[in-house]
Design goal:
12 strands; 166 residues
Length: 166
């Protein structure tokens, strides 16, 4: 059986919008395939991904107090969780559970995350572009991880670490 290629997304924040809104582009085709939006004025940060018809396909919501545990759901089904440390000492390292598979994501400075399973295989990467007016980053999801699940985890990471920068 032939090896599947990784799936690439380009995520770009729209400027001049009332809420944080992101265009999500399929890198292979250059076509926009999703829109992600963040709820405003909420005690628990919430994001959701919509298809191009406006249908919600994924919802991401954090816990209230420390905002360190984020749940990723598809409809009523829990498909993943991202758990960040409450106190960060050196670098950034946290756990991601997606579709029953554990990953550990890490980066020293917080600009380029790699999420690896216990065998060292990459599940997804997030590569943030610096010095841009619009928040822009690339997400690459590697098989067998479902691309939409890796994208949701990357949006969670972005929301946790960069929401105060916008």
């Amino acid at each position: 059986m032939a090896q599947q290629a990784p799936f690439g997304f380009k995520v770009t924040q729209k400027i001049f919008t009332f809420r944080a809104t992101y265009d999500i582009i399929d890198e292979a085709t250059g076509q926009q395939i999703f829109v992600a939006k963040r709820q405003i004025f909420a005690l628990t940060p919430t994001l959701w991904i919509e298809d191009m018809n406006g249908n919600e396909v994924i919802r991401i919501k954090s816990n209230f107090l420390f905002k360190n545990r984020w749940k990723i759901t598809q409809g009523d089904q829990l498909i993943g969780e991202v758990e960040f440390p409450i106190i960060r000492i050196c670098g950034i390292k946290f756990d991601v559970l997606l579709a029953g598979q554990n990953y550990t994501a890490s980066d020293l400075l917080g600009w380029s995350f790699n999420a690896r399973d216990p065998s060292g295989n990459i599940g997804f990467t997030l590569d943030k572009k610096v010095f841009r007016i619009k928040d822009t980053y690339k997400v690459t999801v590697y098989p067998p991880l479902e691309p939409l699940f890796g994208l949701a985890a990357a949006l969670t990471i972005d929301s946790k670490f960069y929401q105060g920068n916008r």
